[in-house]
């Protein structure tokens, strides 16, 4: 394991798991509520480029972890390592591009849900490249069964010239900032950038290379996204345009969603879940999941409502 693959130790209610998905090993982190009879839903959280599943378990300060908070609020939270990261890091390039990942992660959710039966459905959380993945998943036919999506730190148009930069890593940070994409260092707890806790993982070239076509991808599959969506941009976002015209264009593209919320998270940089406002953002994400559960139950038949009360079988 390289220094860029290092993971901080985890403790209850969080543990590391691996799922076999058609012969592919998917590693990740899982947290479960202590009361398995009151599980609200399965939250599947997908990290961005250059990170691993530890992104959703920030340990630089108390209260940052989505996995800890979700379990306390009655959710099963599973943060898998995206295909090409962790135990699937040896996958060939053809299997780690966006649409291949979308199909594989949907398969992984099917495996997880069939074995452990989340009660009220599946809710996706995506960050940065993870947002691209979540949208691609929602555009698939199976994606229409999802409760909803909470997306952060990914828009429609980059805030820089992709053809000139190709990746955020190659661009210079501004004075006083932690990195070219992070935003001001003061937005993050002091221990965030310690190698012992920073959830880094090497990028796959195939994923970086496809970034230049993202705007076209979004335009093509946005009309296929037909579940509730909440999108959050950091106040100090450096990678994506967040002006009013940009947000209006995103709203127009996501015209088939039954509910669309667009939010700006104050006092946050691109990596919101590792910053001081992580808890504020995560609370809003899980509150949106609760809204999606309520919407599903309001439209469900009496039989479906009974099915939703079946207990979750702990892993």
Descriptive key words:
single chain; alpha/beta; Rossmann fold; eight-stranded mixed beta sheet; globular
Task: Detail the topology: elements first, then pairings.
Elements (H helix, E strand, L loop, with lengths): L13 E8 L2 E8 L10 E5 L19 H7 L3 E5 L17 H19 L5 E6 L1 H11 L8 E5 L9 H4 L39 H5 L4 H8 L7 E6 L9 H10 L6 E6 L12 H22 L2 H6 L8
Parallel strand pairs: 3-4, 3-5, 5-6, 6-7, 7-8
Antiparallel strand pairs: 1-2, 2-4
Helix pairs in contact: 2-3
Distance between the termini: 26 Å
Radius of gyration: 18 Å
Order of helical and strand elements: EEEHEHEHEHHHEHEHH
CATH architecture: 3-Layer(aba) Sandwich
CATH class: Alpha Beta
Query: What is the count of β-strands?
Result: 8
Q: Give the biggest sheet.
A: 8 strands, mixed
Overall morphology: globular
Give the % helix: 25-40%
Largest sheet, spatial ordering of strands: 1-2-4-3-5-6-7-8
Low-pLDDT runs of 5+ residues are 167-173
Work out the count of structural domains: 1
Description of the molecule:
- With 315 residues, the chain is of the alpha/beta class.
- The chain has a single domain, classed as Alpha/Beta hydrolase fold, catalytic domain (Rossmann fold), CATH 3.40.50.
- The chain is built from 9 helices and 8 strands.
- It has an 8-stranded mixed sheet, sandwiched between helices.
- Helix 7 links the parallel strand 7 and strand 8.
- Helix 2 (98-116) crosses helix 3.
- The longest helix has 22 residues, at 278-299.
- Mean pLDDT is 88; it is low at 167-173.
């Amino acid at each position: 394991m390289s220094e860029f693959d290092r993971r901080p130790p985890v403790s209850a209610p969080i543990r590391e798991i691996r799922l076999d998905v058609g012969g592919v090993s998917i590693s990740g982190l899982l947290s479960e509520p202590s009361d398995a009879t009151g599980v609200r839903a399965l939250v599947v959280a997908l990290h961005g480029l250059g990170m691993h599943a530890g992104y959703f378990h920030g340990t630089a300060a108390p209260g940052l972890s989505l996995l800890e908070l979700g379990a306390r609020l009655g959710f099963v939270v599973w943060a898998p390592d995206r295909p090409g990261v962790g135990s699937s890091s040896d996958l060939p390039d053809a299997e780690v591009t966006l649409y291949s990942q979308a199909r594989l992660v949907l398969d992984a959710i099917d495996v997880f849900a069939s074995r452990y039966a989340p009660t009220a459905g599946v809710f996706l959380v995506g960050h940065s490249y993870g947002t691209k993945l979540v949208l691609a998943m929602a555009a698939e036919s199976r994606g229409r069964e999802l409760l909803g999506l909470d997306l952060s730190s990914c828009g429609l148009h980059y805030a820089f010239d992709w053809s000139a930069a190709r990746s955020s890593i190659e661009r210079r940070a501004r004075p006083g900032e932690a990195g070219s994409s992070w935003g001001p260092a003061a937005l993050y707890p002091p221990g965030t950038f310690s190698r012992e806790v920073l959830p880094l993982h090497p990028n796959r070239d195939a994923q970086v290379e496809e970034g230049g076509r993202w705007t076209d991808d979004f335009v093509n599959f946005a009309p296929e996204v037909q579940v509730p969506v909440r999108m959050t941009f950091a106040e100090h976002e450096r990678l994506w345009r967040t002006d009013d015209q940009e947000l209006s264009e995103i709203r127009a593209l996501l015209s088939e969603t039954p509910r669309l919320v667009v939010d700006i998270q104050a006092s946050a940089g691109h990596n919101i879940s590792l910053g001081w406002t992580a808890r504020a953002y995560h609370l809003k994400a899980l509150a949106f999941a609760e809204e999606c559960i309520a919407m599903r139950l309001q439209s469900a038949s009496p039989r479906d409502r009974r099915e939703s009360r079946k207990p979750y079988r702990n892993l």
